[in-house]
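Before anything else, study the sequence and fold tokens given here and see whether the fold suits the sequence. Record follows:
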Amino acid sequence: MNRYIWFLLLVCNTGCTILSKESRFAHTEGTRFIVNGEPYSFMGANMWYAAILASEGEGGDTLRLFKELDLLKGLGVDNIRVLVGAEGEAGVHSKIEPVLQKTPGVYNDTLLRGLDKLMVELGKREMMAVLYLGNSWEWSGGYSQYLMWSGEGRAPIPNIDGWHPFRDYVAGFVACDSCKAMFSDHVKFIVSRVNSITGRPYSEDAALFSWQIANEPRAFSDEGKEAFYNWLTDVAALIKSIDKNHMVSTGSEGLYGCEVDIDLYKRIHSDENIDYLNMHIWPYNWGWASKDSIEEKLANSITETETYMKIHIEIAENLRKPLVLEEFGYPRDGFSFSRNSTVRARDAYYKFVIDRIKKSSSEGGALVGGNFWGWGGFADSVTGSYNWKKGDPYTGDPAQEPQGLYSVFVSDSSTLQVIRQFGHTSF
């Protein structure tokens, strides 16, 4: 047999298709994603808590997980972005529980099996996950926890101690060799994992869309930008050394995740081990709308969003890599936390984003995917409280944010209809 046969798409006499080993995994060709041999564009969801739901321990609810995945698949959403797990102590204000890595290298086996179960269930449904390995923010431990493990004292909590003390503290992460070494150990442990249910390494699982270094990694200071660049590219190389089948992305917000240094963003994403570009867009968080002008400032938010998109699309097209808007959200009308509130402004914002991605995809542009933030699904007993507390349902909103503000629930029928208009699309 010709030795190049594995690199071709073969058609057998019965009409079935056989894909090469390499083609089974999502990968890139220029500014396109390729899945199952076809160009792939998507509207996905952020569901950070999915691995917790899949577990049999604290926080687990497999019946809810099955319903969530089935509903998402029915909407055409086959790509979800998931946190691998939290780090550190339990009982910390505005931090999710249960915790995966209690102390360096000590893991909650029940949650690891939950992650395994999630990957199995995604595979059954022909869905895929982006698994992010860390976080720059306090709501899952993140930078703060690695610094505390390295003896840097108690980490400030932004909602209690203020933004500036937190920023100054976590800026130390990229300069902390012991922090980065512990994170590298975590990366090695997770990326080399063998699924306890299937016996298959994660590196051989086609339900894994990509590994992601962290949620919204930042340098948090101008002085730390070079160390930040070195850290991200070193981790990307480490992941690729363990798993050569899957893509790697950074999890960056884009310009605002690189200390407003677009050259730094471009240099990071030029790295050969980083397969595609990310950006996040948050109109309210970034001051394009305010609590009392969610609906009134919708047009301004859309204008600013288009400007932010264009900056990153141009870079992605110059680098010949795909771009994913993997976080975007808009508050419920009136800045309400209640799942019973209207979502007219959010629906209009989602429609703009979805249409923009569809347009780029259909025209061969670099912006070919998005993940809305975030999926609240069947979460019940949502209190509308400002912070998540142990025992509360998991929604799309992380622990430090208003519960329900950005979440898309099954009761948000108008938003679901907007999402359904995209779904998974091949061009």
